[in-house]
Amino acid sequence: MSSWISRAIESRHGQLITTAVVSGVVVGGTILGFQKAKRMYRVAQLKDSIPDIGENHHATRITEYGAASEAFQPSKEDERNMELAARARRGDYAEDLVLEQLARNRVFLTDDGLDKLRTAFVIVVGCGGVGSHATASLARSGVSKLRLIDFDQVTLSSLNRHAVATLADVGTPKVHTIRRRLEQITPWTYFDCRNELFSEVSAPNQLAPLNGQAPDYVIDAIDNIDSKVALLKYCHDNNLRVISSMGAGCKSDPTRIFIGDISASTDDPLSKSTRRRLRAMGVKDGIPVVFSTEKPGPGKAELLPLPEEEFTKGQVGELGVLPDFRVRILPVLGTMPAIFGLAVANHVILEIAGYPHDYLPSKSRDKMYDGILGALQGAEEKLAKSRGFDFQGLKIPITQDDVGYLVEEVYHGRSIVSGLSTRLALVRWNKPVDEIIDDRTPGQKNSLLQMKELVLMTKEEAMKHQKEVLQGDKRPEDLYNKKILATVDSKMREEEKYERFR
Questions:
Q1: Average pLDDT over the chain, rounded to whole?
Q2: N or C: which end of the chain has fewer CB within 10 A?
């Protein structure tokens, strides 16, 4: 190699090439150096242009979300209200005045019910349209201890649905906006404001007791799916009573709003994603939710797409205020979040006060799931027998909850072939090419079946599929049209994404 370089340098042609390469490197380095120096000069100029902090230039730290930590200076009226609230919480507020303000609640809930409400501690996570109306109703109804959790600030677009925010509040933290306004209405209420993002990591601290009192109820008014699922899972695992608001966006019919178990919520993308994620984590019911059964239709509002030019600029996910937050505009009629929030507060008030009430029952299809599970067990035994295995004592790694998840959340209770919703069965989609039984443990035989291999059909369709595909020589491509094949492929790829939540 060294001799080749020596010969190349000695030749005139090689010398010219070498000179050109060296010159290019020198020129490139000079240009890059000049650009770096230019950037450094501009940065220095910018820094020099920033005035020193003093009486004429006051500066405060910004929060981790890029907002001013002290976004507003209290006015004299704010200061008077804050002082009145502080005195009221110390007991310098006549009890007769409190009872007079709460007189209508008192005669409705009785003294015992109102006492329970007045000593309750409620946490509201999410203080936008839904959360602000829920909080305002709870405070007006007598709840004396409220913890508010939200990382966001009031914007101009918030004002079409926020319960108490005004133009003067734009740019201020939502939790403090609510506190400032409600202290003027119920000054005896204690507000524990947390200008923070809720997350799985911070949940133990954010949902912790207040002065030794565990929360009597938690309200989920979050519109981000990851935070929402983390909150509901934490409450479920730690036996905290919680009610969740599903999506109010793109809804307009107040007659279709219900309070029911999460397993019964339908016709809402946020509800569907939340329910499916929770079910993958083993939480299938037991959480009351407020949801709308209104269906989309011609002329109705839809999630607005991002303009095409935004995709040409790079990763659209970077447009979100935080990672994994939505970046598209969600159309919201200002009245609907208010109705959702009032429904949430109403439920919490009745629960805490012990007032009689009921909500929609769950689907109660456990018997159907058991039947489908039994048929699947039999199908796996037949498949094992057809391959020469001893199927006696064969166990399949699928539970009743798994069946319910596949039927309700993946296939929405309809056959993938015909769309029928009666006499349903789960069956393998593809003929297995590898071993189907693990018998390495003495005395135990386990099927290697996985949930993502199963599809939902009617019993008659499943029998035909098993005979011709699983035990015969045909492929799904030989039996079904392109639309069915594409649908199955889409469902299976979607299920692979949800498997990480199990």
A1: 84
A2: N
Q: What is the pLDDT of residue 85?
A: 81
Is 345 inside any structural domain? yes
Pair (407, 329) in one structural domain: no
Q: What are phi and psi of 455, to 5 degrees?
A: -130, 160
Same domain, 373 and 239: no
- Whole-angstrom distance, CA of residue 449 vs CA of residue 429: 11
Q: What percent of the chain has pLDDT over 70?
A: 81
Instruction: Show which of 296, 319, 353 is a domain's final residue.
Output: 353
Domain finish residue from 353, 385, 404: 353
Which stretch of 28-42, 239-253, 305-319, 402-416 has the lowest confidence by average pLDDT?
305-319
Determine the distance from the C-alpha atom of residue 253 to the mean position of all C-alpha atoms in its chain, rounded to a whole number. 23
End-to-end CA gap in the chain = 58
What is the Cα Rg of the chain in Å? 31
Residue 270 pLDDT > 80, yes or no? no
Q: Which residues contact 68 (CB under 8 A, 6 or more apart)?
A: 60, 62, 171
197 and 65 Cβ atoms separated by less than 8 Å? yes
The number of helices, as runs of H, and strands, as runs of E, in the chain is 17, 12
Do 139 and 253 belong to one domain?
yes
Q: What is the rounded CA–CA span in Å between residue 290 and residue 491?
A: 27
Of 156-165, 239-248, 311-320, least confident by mean pLDDT is 311-320
pLDDT score recorded for residue 327: 46
Q: Which residues contact 293 (CB under 8 A, 6 or more apart)?
A: 256, 258, 266, 267
Which amino acid, one-letter code, is at 112? D
d(CA 466, CA 487): 19
Q: What is the domain extent for residue 310?
A: 76-353
Q: Are residues 175 and 119 in the same domain?
A: yes
Each residue's pLDDT tens digit, 395-440? 899 988 889 889 988 898 899 999 999 999 999 999 988 788 887 7
**Does residue 62 form part of some domain?**
no
Asked if 345 and 436 sit in the same domain, the reply is: no
Q: For the chain, what is the domain count?
A: 2
What value, to the nearest 5°, has the Cα angle with vertex 260 and ends 259 and 266? 100
